[in-house]
Write the structure tokens for this entry.
Amino acid sequence: MTDDGVTDAPVLDARQIERFVTDGFIRFDHAFPRVLATQGRRRMWRDLSGEPDRPETWTRPVERLFAYWQKPFREAANTARLHQAYDQLVGSGRWAPLEGLGTFPVRFPSPQDPGDTGWHVDLSFAPRESDGEVNEATDFSLWRINVRSRGRALLMLFLFSDVGEDDAPTRIRVGSHLDIARQLAPFGEEGLNGRQIDAGVSDARPVALATGPAGTVYLCHPFLVHAAQPHRGTEPRFMAQPALPLRTPLDLDPGQSFHPPVEAAILRAIG
């Protein structure tokens, strides 16, 4: 075993791989060291309106922090264990390393409605010219997603604080990636935009909660339907939700002898 916890054996076993294909996600424990989460929270508190030890200053239900690329964030995103998991789920050489963790929606205990708890699928590429004049900085509803998940290999949830059931864990529709794949399939490379795709096709599926200690990462299929929720706990929740960049397009040719799990799930859905 190396110093960062990697052994000669794959970090994901066959049961976890099958769960990724059927459920659309796996919980990956000890994905990065807790000390990096502690360092990351300390850095983010500098940019928040409140103070860590004064709950009376936590006056908003959610604050969004952007563009975190400093050392603890880069290291958390690129541990040897995570790189090995990316290889197993996406394929060696098929993904690009993360340079940081991007946006953190920091959620605070609050009776207020945070206003962002709708079920959705993350979109992955810019709108077409025919979608009209779009301000990409403020209107992401016209961004698109297609059946080959252009530009996005995985959705990931990086827990930078301990998250219990009351701490606004992300809600996940188990198996919903299969519904979205079937919805996208008829639209080929063009795909659908955020106003066209219907996350409600998965409303009957069970809900799982993305809970766990700091250092946990949920590795999710890019088509997974998910949602935020209000914070009913006592401590702020720090979580990043970056996309793993896709270096080469997904290959959905059913004649290929092997498909990594992210492709195998789509093929299972669309036949």
